[in-house]
Give the backbone structure.
Amino acid sequence: MLDGVVAEASMAAMVEARDEGWGLRRIGQHVGMSHEQVRRLLGEVVGERSGG
């Protein structure tokens, strides 16, 4: 349960950072993953928001 909460909070923070103009590499550095992982995760969030 705690893992799910942490994952949700991390995703929300990544989305907010991207909306504030942070680059994928910068976000990745702060969350401890590659910029490609960040790109894929943010892409999934955008897909969910648009209904796709």
